[in-house]
Amino acid sequence: MTLKKLLLATTLSAGAAVPGLAQEDFPTRQIEFVTPYPPGGSHSLHAGIITTAAEPHFGVSLVSVIRAGGGGAVGATEVAQADPDGYTLLFGDPTINSLRPQVEDLAYDIDDFVPVARINYSPAIFVARADSPFSTLEEMVTYAEENPGDLTYSSDNLNGWTYTVFELLKARSGADMTGVEYGGGGPAVARLLGGETMAYAGDISVVGEHIESGDLVPLCVTDTERMEALPEVPTCPEAGYDVVFQFWRGAMAPAGTPPEVIAELSDSFEALMEDEGFLRLIGRIGSSIQFADHEEFAELWASEVEAMAAVAEMTGAAE
Amino acid sequence: MLADLASGFQLILDPVVIGVALIGLLAGLFVGALPGLTATMAVAVLAPFTFIMEPLIGLPFLLGVYKGAIYAGSIPAILINTPGTAAAAATAADGNAMARSGRAREALEISLFASVIADFLATIVLVLVAAPLAAVAIKVGSAEFTLLYALALTMVAAVSGDDMLKGLIAAALGVMIALVGLDPMSGAQRYTFGLPVLLGGISLIPLLIGMFALSEIMLRAEDDLRTPQRSPKMPGDARETGVSLRGFRGLLPTILRSTGIGTSLGSLPGLGAEISCWVSYGLARRASATPERFGKGAPEGVAAAEAGNNAVCPAALIPMTVFGIPGDTITAVLLGAFMAQGLTPGPLLFSRDAETVYALFAFLFVSNVLLLGVGIFAIRYLQHIVLIPANLLYPVVAAFCFAGAYAVNNAAFDLVIMLAGGIAGYAMRKTGMPIPPLVIGMLLAPGLENSLRQALTVSRGSFDIFVTRPGALALLTVLCLLIALFIWRGLQRIHQAPSKGKTS
């Protein structure tokens, strides 16, 4: 361990002395890209595409490692405790990196990670069943006010993204609604379609098809701008409630990873994001790229962490 | 629809597609037969490679892997009492007992034929009535799921062997093991003792490998120490006979029943092959005129478990293709692979990509024929594994135990779970405590807990939800009748026991 650090320090200082050398010395072996969720979700799907196309841009292969458990906490803890040498990266998101460490007692902290690169982000879309008694956000809140607690909605996981946007809506509107966590987007939408719940808010990859088929009605998107794919759907602030929370996907490294290594990784991700084959595959799963390099991402992330602290306070989730 | 299917066959009956599917099938067989390498893992690892293939090359390959792996889990279950996948745990009970009495080939053939027939019939259901069946399945709510899980839990009674008390203790242990980890609704830590590795709970597969395989090795080693140089016990001749036509005809009712169970459970998101195999096994035992043969080498046991788990494969594709809702992790991975090919499963899939979808349906039939051929060929060689001397075979199996337990999650802690499972399994077998109830308890507890809590959240704490919904009420009635039947039979046995004691 010490020897490794010493060696790393030596190579890095040598790299600083001779420009370009550091880039040749990192990476020298495969990099593990850890997805903290079970296979099959949108995260592991993105990870599969990223790791398939990564090698030409990283010089070494990026290996997709799936470490599910504890709603992401197990994988995140492992990466937080890994050697900070750039060879272990977490495929992070706002839930495990910004919100949950503030509201739950986890084995890692927010500052156990440093941001490397943001791949993309997407807003949640509030949806209701086509035969439900409301078809706009305003009507939904009115319904909830008139029938306190009767309005049931699906969400994926406690303190997850789809859960938090409803917490935000409840905090902003003061309406009383009953949430049920189903453990994932699939079952959450299934119970909405089956009539057990009345509303949901989730990613376009989960609700898009059902909006297109007319089974679900979109109410608003949790962003400050409308979505390209759904231009007629208002943003939540436009619809009357300031509920803005984007779900990003990005690479995080354990705190203590040398800045040169972070910069090198960020550059490699940037090159990958311009790869045509990669973009074609990302397009096929209905996703897109909104890249942010390590510096821009660090700023965005810092302000999000602050915003999440406010959310935690507002929704009373903080302990 | 038939015209669609016919053009589907035209697209799929292509030497390249068949070749790729065959490779997938063989890869699946290999992975499924090795304990610890699960079908989910294999499909998840191989899926990204198919992203760059043509849809009608990549998807048949993945579906081949899926089918091969689900079937192959039964091979080590029969031969060395070690289920290759969790879905084959019920196969081990009678399959291995058959192999030990010199009927390995028969057991392997029953498993293959039952798997293929069940898969074939379930595929017909998928093609003909996917949409209406999915429309019914989506109406099934948390209250019904709760009762379905509770009904499945009564299967503990069928797999407890002679001693119901020990069976119930084992089932309770399984439930308690399943509680470890994060509370799914409040996020509170349960029995984690502050250890981060326990946050994700106790992994089922390493534990199963320990309980079944490692304990088996320990028992064999112990036997060997007591009676050294014992040649492998093989009554009868090495040239075993396969299953007879007449014998197999007798299994058909069991296979049909189990296919029905597998298809129904598979079309409900959340209830997978792991649960279906136990329910089929339990019901087969209950329907049998000679239930006491179960666990001691009953061919019906093998047929029921294998038909039950293989029928789930096509059935799980029903909610996936119709609603884009995956039923289990493996269909979730397949869903991703479909999406990466630009085929978004969901309500619009059939109108938008009918040609590809029907080609894939056609492929499901073709793959069954392939599996049958590959299986018959493989069994000719595999049956001889039981003839390998134990002192050569079991060290290799032990190595696979460690490799497999680690491979599931790439976690060193899973090795600890596997070892603990091995010791616990050894102790349980020594004391006559059955292992299957523990597995069932562990499999069903999370689903039962989640759906109960979901149902009660929806009803805001009122238990009325279990009687006001017609589906729930029907299930509740069946559950109450079943429990009443158990109690009645138990009382009968207590009354009979003393009189029997006098006469003998």
TrEMBL record, chain A:
Keyword check for Signal: yes
Lineage of origin: Bacteria, Pseudomonadati, Pseudomonadota, Alphaproteobacteria, Rhodobacterales
Family annotation (InterPro entries): BUG (IPR005064), Bug_dom1 (IPR042100)
UniProt record similarity statement: Belongs to the UPF0065 (bug) family.
UniProt keyword annotations, A-Z: Signal
Organism of derivation: Histidinibacterium aquaticum
Signal sequence extent: 1-22
Protein name: Tripartite tricarboxylate transporter substrate binding protein
SUPFAM superfamilies for the chain: Periplasmic binding protein-like II (SSF53850)
Top-level taxonomic group: Bacteria
The UniProt record lists the keyword Transcription regulation: no
TrEMBL record, chain B:
Domain of life: Bacteria
Alphabetical keyword list: Membrane, Transmembrane, Transmembrane helix
Membrane-spanning residues: 12-34, 41-63, 69-91, 112-137, 143-161, 168-187, 193-214, 356-379, 386-405, 472-491
Domain DUF112: 19-440
Pfam families in UniProt: TctA (PF01970)
InterPro entries according to UniProt: DUF112_TM
Signal peptide coordinates: none
Protein's UniProt name: C4-dicarboxylate ABC transporter permease
